[in-house]
Amino acid sequence: MDMHQQRDEKLEHSQASEECVEAENRRMKEICEAAEARVNRLQLTRQGLEGELQSLQDFRRELGESEARTAFLKLMVTALAHYELQETQLMEQLQAKTASLSDSNIVQTLCKDNILHNKTQNKEWLAEQVTALQATAHRLETGKAELKRILIRLGKERSSPKRTGEKETFALQSELEAVEKQIQDLEADMAARMLCNVSAVSYLYPRRNSLPEELHRQELDLETELMRDSQQQVEKVVEGCEKAHRQRVYCLEEQFDQIYKRQKQLYDYFRKQASPWRCAEGRNYSTSTQYVIALSLHNC
């Protein structure tokens, strides 16, 4: 009877354990499903953010193009306003002449011919201005492409000092390791000498009891002087190595500073030359471009 009861208790305990395990499995499954749902939501959010970022980049590009078109349209509006002002002045002159010379058809005809001729000249002038603006825009595009090529070439050449600096840094590290090895060798040599001196002192100590006190003192002074000389020699070598290392680091830092300042000057000059308003004015553009190219080749 007791065995049967124990078996039932074990069975109930096993069933309870299985139910706990199943409940735990269901809870873990729910947690996994919730985590997967959250991952999916995060992926959707990431995709949405990437889409918004792409839209923002497109908008910025369109904004830049719109600003360029706006600047061009402003120039056109200024030219048209000038033309309209001239046309208004001519119309006022025409009306004044028409009022004063209404009695003479011949004079009126001559005035009309003069006005028509002036209008034709104004139209031709406006066409020339439009052609000049188009040529300026083409020159701007050409100069922009040329400056881009120069900047790309300078960017490639900028990596050359970096590689040179890395080589110098690697050589400097090798030299520093060699100096450290030399210092370790000197320290080991000094330790060996000190050990030999201590051994000699311990070997000669029993004999010193039978020697005069003055001789003992002379031997101690001699050994102390030898140890001091060895230590000073090691310190001089270490100081010389450290001084050479600092001097080399200082030279490299000055070289890098000069390269950085030179590249910054070139960058500032290119940025000034690439200004759209200065380029639009068309003042000394080709000469400035040739000067920039010559300056970059000279600095390289």
From TrEMBL:
Superkingdom field: Eukaryota
UniProt biased composition (Basic and acidic residues): 1-16
Disordered, as annotated region: 1-20
Name used for this protein in its record: Rootletin-like
Organism: Triplophysa rosa (Cave loach)
